[in-house]
Amino acid sequence: MRKRKLLIPQPRSRFYKVICKTCGAENVVFSHASFPTRCKVCGTQLVKPTGGRALVLKDKSEIVAELG
Ligand SMILES: [Zn+2]
């Protein structure tokens, strides 16, 4: 996903709807999660926290929608 140039600064934090590749369940994750978010069904870690923006683990989950 490319970062768009915005004239008006806005918070970059978002919620994403991701699909767990292990079991196919939908999970909602925060883009700046400060803790590892796990799949609610199988417990697979979907998001890796960093100092800032959390990383969605591409081999474990897939972003299907952006919320808010
Ligand atoms: Zn799962």
Ligands: zinc ion
Integer count of domains = 1
Average pLDDT number: 90
Shape: globular
The first-level CATH class name: Mainly Beta
Structural class: mainly beta
State the helix count: 0
Tell me the radius of gyration.
Answer: 12 Å
> Major sheet, described briefly?
3 strands, antiparallel
Strand order of the largest sheet: 2-1-6
CATH superfamily: Ribosomal protein S27
GO cellular component, one term: ribosome
Binding site for Zn(2+): 20, 23, 39, 42
GO molecular function, one term: zinc ion binding
Zinc finger (C4-type): 20-42
Structural topology:
Elements: E1 15-20, E2 26-30, E3 37-38, E4 45-48, E5 55-56, E6 61-67
Antiparallel strand pairs: 1-2, 1-6, 3-4, 4-5
Zinc ion binds next to loops.
Task: Give the structure's gist in a few sentences.
Part of the 30S ribosomal subunit. It holds the Pfam family Ribosomal_S27e. By secondary structure, the protein is mainly beta.
Key attributes of the depicted protein:
three-stranded antiparallel beta sheet; about 70 residues; globular; binds zinc ion; N-terminal domain of TfIIb; mainly beta
